[in-house]
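Late entry, written up from scratch paper. The run itself happened at the end of the previous shift, but nothing got recorded in the book at the time, so transcribing now.
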Amino acid sequence: MDHLIKNFSKNQSGNTLNFNDVFTRQVITGFRLYREPDLPYDGAMYLAYEEKKGRPHFILRESLVIDRQLTFRDLYELGPDPSAVILYPGGNAFYFDEKMEDALAASGAVYDSDELEEIFRPWLRPDIREALESFMNRSFRGARKKLTDIEKQSILKQVPHFDKRRAHYLRFGNMDQGPVENMPATLFQDHSHKSRDEIEQQFFRQETSTLKPREFKSYVYAVFDLQRFFQGMLAKKMPQALDQDRVDEFFLAEICRINKTVYKRDKDLDTHLIRYLIMFFDHPYADTTLLDDLAKDFMNRHRVFHPKPSNSLTLDNACKLFHISREELKTMTRKHLTRIYRKLARQVHPDTGGSHEKFVDLNKAYETLLEKIG
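Output as recorded:
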């Protein structure tokens, strides 16, 4: 399988595959109340998203236990538009297509009308949805039931580290997440006691609504915990400064490991993991101000001890430090200049093997060139 994934990553570097195309519609999963792990598991419905022949396709599914294993089954094919099964007799009233309700009854699925309405709420007519949400906000203001210690331990034991890191990032957006052992069980309450498919549909929905394309690669770097293979502050705050060939190797090894341990697949890659290959190989890291912050902090701390006049570097010397000509500077944007500065800063910063004098000179040159660009 390693060979298949490496070929996939090489193909992506040569072809344009926009991850935004994968997120064509918002996917909403059914809500699930926490259930004691030792009680009979009666399942809960949710909406699943797939692509069929390049088009969005929705399926009403149910998580359930078969042979003591959590799995899922299809209940009703909804096609490309879930709103098609919602009918409006007049006013603010609505009901669901009898064909779907007959199919659910024939399947033996156990549910109530509130659960079904919650699943399809995003596809209700806007005015009815707004009225329903207003009523729900007034009626359900109570706090979520507090978990017992036994429930907390059950959640922490059941939820894989991969799911914990995804839930943590989507909630807080932190790349440096720290040990998963320090994360509270309540953070993963919505990701436990469900089938793997239902969990993935839920994460898919959250990623769709939460992440921006510029965050994709940083998100994957964090949730696959790639920083643990490196040392130093750059691994936690600025992964683009690392050896990217090594980062790629560790990522491919991790996705294979998680495919085997979490998704129970060995010979082929689970379809839910393919989007992370696209996120990682088809997008750059998110912008970071780490080097700018380090430079400002370093200058503030050392300016009093090593003062230099503001005109200590001529324009020619500044261009020389940046390995550019005056002609190139005339057509250069601030963004391009900053990119060069960050690359050079990684090389000359004292914390990465450079020297204080070179770093100060680089910052003076940067300020000089910025003034010329305007």
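Residues 8-42, 304-311 have pLDDT under 50 and may be disordered.
(Scratch paper discarded after transcription.)
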